[in-house]
Amino acid sequence: MKQADLTGILVLAFLGGGILTFLGAIIKYFNAGDILNGFDEKKYDKEKVSRIVGMDFLIIGLSVIIIALISIFIDKKYYNAIMITQGIIIVLGLIKALYDQFFKCGKN
């Protein structure tokens, strides 16, 4: 496996994390849960989806960015682990957001 460099870590963080943070802010603060794929107003509460999934996206994006900023001060031999950690956070966070949307935000 090729050794990761700081540029790759920062690019992944500010593209992936930045997009997720931006979408999370839009969804949460502008009550735009209906922009999510698979949203059905008959099945899901829009305000609840906006609040929960928007916060999930914000947490995912900000944690990826914070890990990248911490990596500036870490030795190069840990860069691969940092990249893998960022990828895992994004994938697991998106799975959690989908779970929250489909199973926690239903109308009662």
Structure description:
The protein is 70% helix and 0% strand. It has one domain (6-104). Helix 1 runs antiparallel to helix 2. The chain is built from three helices and no strands. With 108 residues, the chain is mainly α. Keywords: Membrane, Transmembrane, Transmembrane helix. InterPro entries: UCP037672. This is DUF3784 domain-containing protein. It comes from Clostridium perfringens F262.
What does the largest sheet look like? none
What is the mean predicted local confidence, pLDDT?
Answer: 92
What series of H and E elements makes up the topology? HHH
What is the helix tally? 3
Please give the radius of gyration in angstroms.
Answer: 16 Å
**Judging from the principal axes of the Cα atoms, what is the shape?**
elongated
Residue runs with pLDDT of under 50 for 5 or more positions: none
The domain count comes to 1
Note the gap between the termini.
Answer: 50 Å
| Sheet/helix structural class | mainly alpha
Fraction of residues in H or I helices: over 70%
DSSP summary, beta strand count: 0
Keywords: Membrane, Transmembrane, Transmembrane helix
Protein name: DUF3784 domain-containing protein
Organism: Clostridium perfringens F262
Pfam family, one: DUF3784
